[in-house]
Amino acid sequence: QVQLVESGGGLVQPGGSLRLSCAASGTIFRPNTMGWYRQAPGKQRELVADITSGGSTSYADSVKGRFTISRDDAKNTVYLQMNSLEHDDTAVYYCKIYDYVTRRDFWGQGTQVTVSS
User: Fold this and answer.
1) Which of 57, 88, 89, 95 has its CA 20 to 30 A from that of 114?
2) Range 2-22 average pLDDT
3) CA–CA separation, 68 vs 89, rounded Å?
4) Cα dihedral 65, 84, 90, 80 sign
């Protein structure tokens, strides 16, 4: 089992920045992909960004150029640096790890990000 704990969410004004962190613990196999998803009220959960064990990244078009995903495998932690935040970025942000050995997904509990003036 893998446990994921997100932190760093909160209330921020439009144009502001936040940095989310997600620490993984338990039995973590590699290679894996770690990612951030978000779900706004009344909408489906969507991929924001993910990063492979090799460092390859992908981003949703809506966050390209504003968000940066990174990982520290020594700490089993993935980060999401969010800049130039917009009202539409308001959502619960979830961390996920996909393990290519067991082919399982593990999810965190989520952290609320609210962009409001």
Assistant:
1) 57
2) 97
3) 14
4) positive
Query: Which position has the token pair 């997100």?
Result: 6
In the chain, % of residues over pLDDT 90: 95
- Collapsing DSSP to helix, strand or coil, 88 comes out as helix
Using the 8-state DSSP alphabet, how is residue 60 labeled?
-
| Pair 58, 3: CB distance under 8 Å | no
Residue carrying the six token digits 């951030």: 36
Tell me how far apart the alpha carbons of residues 47 and 86 are, in angstroms, rounded to a whole number: 17
β-bridge pairing 67-72 and 10-12: unpaired
What CA–CA distance (Å, rounded) separates 112 from 25?
Answer: 21
Residue range 76-103: mean pLDDT, rounded: 96
